Amino acid sequence: MSQSQQTQNLTLVQAVRDGLHTEMTNDDRVVVMGEDVGKNGGVFRATEGLWNEFGDDRVIDTPLAESGIAGTAIGMAAMGMRPVAEMQFSGFMYPAFDQIVSHAARLRARSRGRFTCPLVVRAPYGGGIRAPEHHSESKEAFYAHEAGLKVVIPSTPYDTKGLLISAIRDPDPVIFLEPKLIYRAFRGDVPEGDYEVPIGEAAVRREGTDVSVYTYGAMTRPTMEAAENLEEEGVSVEVVDLRTVSPMDKETIVKSFEKTGRAAVVHEAPKTGGLGAEITATLQERALLHQEAPVERIAGYDVPYPLYALEDYYLPSVARVEEGIRNAVEF
């Protein structure tokens, strides 16, 4: 960001809209498509006003057919366009899974580089908003496991716009998961115009010396709050916001751990097979001799995502994050 660049005070969902508008203005190849994204502006109003400005040809209301949305977008991307396909909720993406992993992720390799797939699939994801079934899952590990896909999960308005612009400009497919719990939870300064936040680079949100805590998305806020509370107890917590879970910034992860020797991972996805296990394995492989305690995984439980009454028990709370960090420090 240049010193002369003006800023706006935006929520995370407004930063999504601003990023889309910026790239649609910059590049005529960028189109937005999905259920109710046009005149209605999307279920969370992330595309509000774009249809009025850019019209039917570039803001396309689709049928309720996720496989069709993804398949159409893949064809458009292969032919040189830059589609941004919205899935109304990440839990609705499963009908499109075959298109995403069998075609979008493999197109470059399958064609030996003759074709690429500059596609962004956006989806609100995660829990905490008292939504019904299929609206609150946190299944980022599905996509991080697939070679050929990048997976981005922002936690601030600034990063949201910058990462979305980077995703749209990327020559390969990007799954862009937006933590809807914090869509309107707070505001942050976002530069006007275009700028990029690099995909694949984590951010150290808080420096510390006693323990490294790795997190992303909506869990960044309770993790930061827990770190601040523990500071009052004399525990110095470093918080690393991954921002991109594939490719994962293993250099930053390891560098932090080499400094502290203790670690915890916080994510709302189920514990088993979650990205916390990948982070733990990375620390074992690359920094074992620095390790002072077992890595704590503070995560969702290995059960179907619960409905309203139990939702607050399922998601990692500030208190549960604090307890996990203490376990790592006191071992």
Automatic annotation (TrEMBL):
Domain Transketolase-like pyrimidine-binding intervals: 10-185
CDD domains: TPP_PYR_E1-PDHc-beta_like
Protein name from the UniProt record: Pyruvate/2-oxoglutarate dehydrogenase complex, dehydrogenase component subunit beta
Keyword Oxidoreductase found: yes
Record has Oxidoreductase as a keyword: yes
Organism name: Halogeometricum pallidum JCM 14848
Cofactor section: thiamine diphosphate
Annotated SMART domains: Transket_pyr (SM00861)
InterPro entries assigned to the protein according to its UniProt record, in alphabetical order: THDP-binding, Transketo_C/PFOR_II, Transketolase-like_Pyr-bd, Transketolase_C
Domain of life from the UniProt record: Archaea
